[in-house]
Amino acid sequence: EVQLVQSGAELKKPGESLKISCKGSGYTFSIHWITWVRQMPGKGLEWMGSVYVGDSDTRYSPSFQGQVTISADKSINTAYLQWSGLRASDTAIYFCATSILSPAILDNWGQGTLVTV
Amino acid sequence: QSALTQPASVSGSPGQSITISCTGTSSDFGDYDYVSWYQQHPGKAPKLMIYDVSLRPLGVSNRFAGSKSGNTASLTISGLQAEDEADYYCNSYTDTDTRVFGGGTRLTVL
């Protein structure tokens, strides 16, 4: 069974740094993309960016380029989303998702990580 | 990069059919048929319902159908059931090698 397990909820102060994680199991983690999606309180889904785990090739939405860093460590089947200086507007639930059927879709999702700034 | 345009809400009675539209530009959809649809119940992670415009993943009911014409994709749900009440989001692979979601549609089953 494919599973993505995300790290727990975080409560941070403005200006602090943060790195949240997404650990995959049940499939060959290194040969697929991992995508991060933001959902602000009461709002819709926003595609932030994706990383190809095998070679760490990344793609960012123009809205998030320079604001976050997406990375992956294939040796431990884990992807990351990090901030160097959080803002109150970063308060949201962050989902990771993988693309097994095709790079263009999100077919398995993590449970979400609530970040409160 | 603006979100794809979806109606904010749609509603229907049990047994009826509804259609949710998803409109973008030619750049939003590129030259690909990589439109997908996601269902999200409150407090839950999204779930893939349709991919590559009209394909259903294993386990998704055939009451869900997708289509696309020009720069508008559509999700049709037939034989509405109470459990279909949720938020629905379209997503497309763009011509700049990125992806974009629609703003989301709240489906209410009356």
How would you characterize the overall build of this protein?
The complex is a heterodimer of chains A (117) and B (110). The mean pLDDT of chain A is 95. Chain A is mainly β and 117 residues long. Chain A has strands at 3-6, 10-11, 18-25, 33-39, 45-52, 57-60, 69-73, 78-83, 92-99, 108-109, 113-116. The radius of gyration of chain A is 13 Å and the shape is globular. Chain A has no helices and 11 strands. Helix content of chain A is 0%, strand content 50%. The termini of chain A are far apart. Chain B is mostly beta strands and 110 residues long. In chain B, 4% of the residues lie in helices and 44% in strands. Chain B has 1 helix and 9 strands, in the order E-E-H-E-E-E-E-E-E-E. Chain B has one helix at residues 26-29; strands spanning 9-12, 18-23, 35-40, 47-50, 64-69, 72-77, 86-93, 99-101, 105-109. In chain B, the strands form 2 sheets. In chain B, strands 1, 3, 4, 7, 8 and 9 form a 6-stranded mixed β-sheet that branches. In chain B, strand 7 (86-93) and strand 8 (99-101) form a beta hairpin. The longest helix of chain B has 4 residues, at 26-29. Chain B is globular. The model of chain B has no long low-confidence stretch (mean pLDDT 94). Chain A binds chain B through residues 35, 37, 44-47, 50, 59-63, 95, 97, 101-102, 104-107, 109-112, and chain B through 1, 3, 32, 34, 36, 38, 40, 45-48, 51-52, 57, 87, 89, 91, 93, 97-104.
